[in-house]
Structures are given as structure tokens and as C-alpha cells.
Amino acid sequence: MKRLLVFVVCMVIIQSHLVAQSAPGFWSDIVSFKKDDSIKKPALYSILFIGSSSFTKWQDVNDYFPEYTIINRGFGGSTLVDVIRYAYDIILPYEPKQVLIYCGENDLASQENISPEEVLHRVKTLFNIIRTNLPDATIDYVSIKPSPVRASIQDRVKIANKEIRAFLKTQKNAGFIDIYDAMLDSNGNMREELYLSDRLHMKPEGYAIWKKAIAPYLIK
Fold this sequence. Notes:
Blueprint: H1 2-22, H2 27-39, E1 47-51, H3 53-56, H4 61-64, E2 70-74, H5 80-85, H6 87-90, E3 98-102, H7 105-110, H8 116-133, E4 138-142, H9 154-169, E5 174-177, H10 204-214
Helix pairs in contact: 8-9
């Protein structure tokens, strides 16, 4: 009986390990969001922030916009492919009245052969998923920011921002929120003082710039 118990325990451990290995990237983040939602269900028809770490680390975003109900579902390191994968888990269930997307920077930084056109294609895919399932929602894209540590990809960042802006201009209830130029100095250089020591993630001074750019787009 003791041997059988040990065998069962070992099988459970092995199965759990295999499940963890086979789970898609960032699944633990999604599970954590679902757990939070089960404890306290977010209000429907809120404003949803979705995307990568620049949103993830904006933990006090509701303090920046106290007059709005904001749900932050950014998960660090994610690409547009990841957000698309989990759209049915962490976008659509909230039935948001507005979705703000910050994603695409990691796409360009992860592989040198990822083109701005591919990023645009991914944005269109995500946009169409949201629009098809939430036809009345406003969808806004926050431009890819100028990160000093990623100086080598800025040419592609600028092209991607330009193409995404042009696409969104053709869509109803959609907007492009440009934070790129606002984060440069008067000579067009990236401002190191806005970033943490990793030269990628922002200090409060960076988020203050984002607040000023984003606030006019938020809907009551």
C-alpha cells in the first residue's frame, strides 16, 4: 500500500511537471489574472489596459486616472502574438468599453527579422478580434516608446508607429496615442532620465508623460 501511495504521488508530480512544460508562454500570468477575477470580479464596461511590461509596471495607473475605472492586464515580456493568444481570456470577458494596447516593442526587439509590416499585421489581427467581438468598444493603440537600451531598433519602431497610425485612421472608434516624440528632448534624443537603470522601463516621470498623452483619449 505504501509503495502504491509513493507511485501515485510520483505520477502526480511528473504530470504536473509535464503540464507546466507544455503550457504556452505566460500561462501563469493568465492563471493569476483569472484567480484575481474570481476573488473580485472587475466591473464590466471599464477601460482595459492590455499589453506588455510598460503597462504591467504601471501598478498605480488608477491613481493617475482616478475618475476612470481601469483594469490593467499587461503581462511583462509579452508580444502581440501572446496578447492575441489570450484575447479570449483577458480581453473579451471584461466586455470593456475601451481597450488601450501597448505592445509591439518586444516583437521588434525579440528578432532582427521581424519587420514593421509584420508588427502591423499582428496589430490588425488583434484589432479585428476585439472589433468582431466587441463592436462598440473604442480601441486605442499607444505608440511604441523610444527605449534607450533598444536604440538599434528605433528605425523599425518609427516605421511601425507610422504604419499603425495610418491603419487606425481608417477605422471607426479607434485612435493612435503618440507618446514617442513626447519622450524625446528638444534635439530629438531619448531622455535617459525617464528610465530605470535597465534603460527600458520607466520612472514616474515617464508615466507622467504617458498620462498627459493618454488622458484626452479616455472615455467616460
